[in-house]
Amino acid sequence: MPPTESRRGVGGWAETLLAGFAHSVRRHPDRTAVIADGRVLTYAELDQAAEAVAAQLQARAVDPGAHVGVFLPRTADLVLAAIAVIKAGCSYIPLDPANPRARLERILAVAEPSLVITTSDLVGNLPPDIAVIRLDHDRPGDLRYSPPSVDSSACAYMIFTSGTTGQPKGVRISHGNVLHLFDSTDSLFAFDAHDVWSMFHSFAFDFAVWEMWGALLYGGSVVVVPEPAVQDPAAFRRLLRDRGVTVLSQTPTAFNQLVAEEQRHDDRLSVRRVVFGGEALRFSGLAPWVAKYGDEAVELINMYGITETTVHASYRRVRETDLHQGASLIGVPLPNSSFLLADDQLRPVPPGEVGEIVVIGPGVGLGYHAQPELTRQRFVELTDADGRATRGYRSGDLARLRPDGDIEYLGRADDQVKIRGFRIELGEVEAALVRHPAVRAGAVAVRTLPTGDEGLVGYVVPNDGTAPDQRRLRDDLSLVLPGYMVPAAFVLLDALPHTGNGKLDRAALPEPTLAAATGRAPRSLVEELLCQLFAQVLGRPVVDPDDNFFVLGGHSLTAVRLVTRIRAVLGLKVSIQELFESPTVAAITAKITAATGRPPLTRRTDGDVVPLSHAQRHLWFRHRTPGTSPADHGAYVLHLSGRVDVAALDAALTDVVRRHAVLRTLFPQHQGAPVARIVDATSVQPPLVVEHVSAEKLADSVTTVAQEPFDLQRDPAVRARLFLVDEDRSALVLVLHHIAADEWSWHPLLRDLTEAYGARLAGRAPHWQPLPVEYADHVLWQRDLLGDADNPGSVAARQLTFWKGYLDGIPHALELPFDRARPADSRSPVDLVPVDIDADLHVRLAGLAGASGTTVSMVLKAAVAALLTRFGAGTDLPFAVTVPGRAEADLERLVGRFVNTLVTRVDTAGDPTFAELLVRVRTTDLAAYQHQDLPFERLVEQLDPVHPPGRHPMAQVRTGTQPTIPAGVALPGLGVEAEPIGNHTAAFDLSYRFAERRDADGQPQGVPGSVEYRVDLFHRETVERLVGGLGRLLEQVTSHPAARLSQLDVPDA
Questions:
Q1: What is the pTM of this model?
Q2: Domains of the chain
Q3: What would the mean pLDDT of 803-818 be, rounded to a whole number?
């Protein structure tokens, strides 16, 4: 532009957007106008294409002044369609494809557009009776375009914002309003044809008006940012760099994500100006950016504005000296505009006093579409200082004038709020909430969520006194409200609080306490780490695998933080889109698993003879060895108070055995090899044996039953004995042989028993949902998954290759602080020393795990390794770890032998800091857990490791989290106290077992545990010293994770 034109701004040569764009086309026909979706359009090409669509509009009898919807994805066609509507003399209505269909229909019902420009992919989301042009289908043909007659007062676009009644309201902005915006900012920015603008925001957000028309009116280029890059700061930065963007417009929330990404790069972007808007800006958050770019090379500008006053209304240059400011300063009104800070009677307030911002000037829009009363209330007639009539817009925002002339923004005065740049009428959200059939009364307020972000919280009075399912409530609201308007949390109330005059007392609405996780435990280490990362990003103490990220308060920006953490901690590339499609840990894990090509687990067995799993074969042969140990048994005693219905209990136990085929399986020998023969469900004999016993002999009787050997060839691997002490006291002993069930089987077994007993008391059979698969199906599935080890491409061969490398050079024996020489028999009597980690230390352990991208179990393992190193065990420590082996969701409800043993190594060499040791543990554990399908028994057969008599083949120490005592054992009419019956022999020298406890809100409550030890190797005092040393070590590393292992104050051997 010539200097004279530049000084006069765009208004110097154009009165309409049509004329302004035509000016750019004439001056810069060959310059790039639009870059999007792999397309680059020059001004001449863009003009020609837009003119063809405008001709279609005219041919469809869409007259000048009509409203035309633009319902398109983020492509070059979005810009093209907007220009086409302007060239036809009409006003465009931006429609966001991300909005729910119900909201889209409400907008269309209010706007009544003459036609909607869309694509074949999106047309199905529109009402069937609406006229459309499909850009990818409806070819313009040989149509003649006739330039319309349009003046500056004509409506250029209509953007819909949230409305108090539940109906969106359409804000009408004229050509003159938009031209004034750029005319008034021309001297402040001096934009020119060399600028490249990013179009980052939704087309339905008024910031996009600034981004798109700013480029087109100055002859610059606009880069339409694709949706994945909007959600991914790394991809967005690459786009800024590759396209040489010079003008960047951002809400502060979005820019904070970019700043975090920018700190990872040494190169510099081409950005000359960053323009902030949409929400309050905290200057201190700009410090990392200013540290890299300074405040001269890249100008930082804070601009206050409202849709009704055409995007921006004020200007404030942010300098390095401003970064300490705690206030949100918005500067001064744009040239040719002014602010009135007024009381509720529209009288000016004195300087320094708080008043409502009334924006005055040529940026004030035309009003609301088809809402004359609301237009009259908000768009007010005023008299200026010279007595002339003028128009102003009552913003509803509060501010005060500071002594230095700066305006300090203080927030909203009414029920309209801004969340992440989106303006929301709380009334619209409340209207949708109370329309829900489960809600009798409701309210919505803005509160600070555990993430530290502000978010919407819904307050619900249930319709019938029954608490509605919050996940279902959120899902239902997402069908009628955009994602940014759906509450992040819900609080159930008996009644809404009211003021003395009967109005809702919004200030009295309580702070939200987001519901604690109450579902299942993670099935794998990846699930456990993902749960940890979800919880960390969401600011929650714990998250379950089936919890929905967005139901728990997540949004698009916290989603960005989450995928960044997943990439950093797990090395997994999960896109924002994948997170939106699969918003639970379980769903993400399933996607990761599916990508590995694992076969699906399906029901396949229908015969009565099936093969044994590798673990079952190992146990079967060990069972036949003389001197079989009760270490292969698992047992619980349920101490019952109250009168037990013996017949109902007997029937219930029979129901459970019939339900789980593995509990009615015999293991005879056929042609020298074991087989599994499933007894038909109708032939099952009731397993319950009833005995009367005195209180004095009860403990001995329980122990005897738990240790009685099984005859696996003739009897099922389950035993049930009910000891009746008196009429109101009894004990039910349940014993399972490990060939049929592992420790994680107690949860489904006792859950089923609870349901079956309740049903039998009611005189009916339990109404169970059928099990999707049986244990035998898993055996066949595992065989297919592993394949033939002789095939180099099979899972078995690949995992065996990994383990050979992983375990290469493993020490044959650890120098533990033994007190006695090792005997030849590895099945030694055991004892245990309890470990008690209190709630305070548990909180610190959880915090350290979160900060390091590990789990509490990993922190405990690292601590044990550090302790044993200090006790002289060396710097290469193999640990046995038991994994549940239930990664497939259908296995969650099954009884069976799914567990596998892994040997993981901890390297303490080089005197690392404890933080460095945690990284080592995480790295090696993840590698091991990703190769957990190969059965340990098969690995031992292949490697044939050298080990002394009386010692485990590869590890002397076991660590891990033990399954908690099953919750929910509540036999109707009985008090129940479940207690595990411990084994009396052990295969490991030392076995560290821990179980995290959390309260109803998910807060850490302590980590009880134990160290089980072989009494033929250790004195109790030695193990007590190890337990004490572990506690001291944990106290230190949670306070000083940067301490080196040699600096830790722990007792040496």
A1: 0.63
A2: 1-224 (3.40.50.12780), 336-416 (2.30.38.10), 425-495 (3.30.300.30), 525-595 (1.10.1200.10), 632-778 (3.30.559.10), 826-964+982-1047 (3.30.559.30)
A3: 92
